[in-house]
Amino acid sequence: MPKNSIKNSHIRRDKYWTPPELIAVLDHQYSRAPQQSSRAPMFEMVLTLLSQHTSDHNSGKAMHRLIEAYPTWDAIIAAPTSSVEEVIRPGGLAPTKSRRLQALLREVKVRAPDWDLTFLVDLTLDDAKRWLTSLPGIGPKTAACILLFALERPALPVDTHVERVAKRVGLIKSNIAATKAHVLLESMLEPDEVYAFHVGLIQHGRRTCYARNPLCHSCPLIERCPRIGLQPLQNER
Questions:
Q1: Among 1.10.357.10, 1.10.1670.10, 3.40.640.10, 3.40.50.300, what is the CATH number of 13-34+158-232?
Q2: Lowest CB count within 10 Å: 41, 79, 141, 208, which one?
Q3: Which CA distances in Å does 48 have to 9, 61, 145, 228?
C-alpha cells in the first residue's frame, strides 16, 4: 500500500502538519505580506460581496466602477437596480449581485444610519459575527473578511483555497461543510495566527495546491501531507 495513501490507516493524526508548522513553512515559501487593516468595514463588505464567484481582478474593477459612479452608499440605494447592474457587470453575476447589494445596503442603513461599523471592534468576536451574518447576503466568509481585513479581528475567512488545502493536509475531514469549516479551523488557531494561516493557505492553493493537477512534486508540504482526496504520487505506487 502506498506510504501516504489516504487508505493507509496506520498514519497517525499527529504526523500531519500542525497549523503553526503550516504557517512557518508557507511563510517561508511565499513571503507573506504584513497585515494592514483597511479600517473601512463598509468598503470591505461591498468588495467581498462583489468578489463572490469571480477573480480579484474582476471584482476590483467592478468596485472601482461602483465608487466612481456613486459617491455615497445612499446613492447606490437610490439608483435604479438596472443601473447598478450595468456598473458592476465586470464582476460577473451582475443581475444577482446588484439586487443583493441594494438589499444589503438598505438593511445596514436601518441599523447603522451613519454607515459606521467600527462599533464591531468593541463587541465580542461571536457577537460581531452574529451582527454581520444577520444581514442579508452576509455569510460566515464575508463576515470574517470584514472583521479580519477591515478591523483586524481574528476571524478566519475560509474560501475555496483555504478549505481545499485544509482538507488535503488533514486538518479537517473531507466531508465537512464550509460553514462548519470556519468554526473548526478558527478554533485550532491562536488569534495572532489567523491572518498568517488564511494568507498562507490561499497562496498555497493558488500557486501550488490547485484544485486539479496540484504540483505535489514541488510542494513544500509533501513530506507530511496525506493528500486527502488525491491519488498517490507515481513513485509511491
A1: 1.10.1670.10
A2: 79
A3: 40, 13, 7, 29
- Cα gap 203→30, rounded to integer Å: 7
d(CA 185, CA 205): 16
- The whole-angstrom distance between residue 231's C-alpha and the CA centroid of its chain comes to 26
Return the pLDDT at 234.
Answer: 53
Count other C-beta atoms under 10 Å from residue 33's C-beta: 9
CATH number for the domain whose boundaries are 41-151: 1.10.340.30
Which of 88, 107, 87 is CA-nearest to residue 49? 88
Give the tens place of pLDDT for each residue, 36-89. Answer: 888 999 999 999 999 988 999 999 999 999 999 999 999 999 999 999 999 999
pLDDT tens profile 177-190? 988 999 999 999 99
Residue 30 has pLDDT above 50, yes or no: yes
Q: Which single residue is written with the C-alpha cell 498568517? A: 196
41 exposed, middle or buried (CB, 10 Å; 0-12, 13-18, 19+)? buried
Q: What's the pLDDT score for residue 231?
A: 72
User: Which residue is listed with cell 468598503?
Assistant: 43
Q: Is 220 helix (H, G, I), strand (E, B) or coil?
A: coil
Look at the chain and count its residues.
Answer: 237
* Phi, psi (rounded to 5 degrees) for 155: -105, 135
| Run of H or E including 13 | none
* Cα(142)–Cα(135) distance, integer angstroms: 11
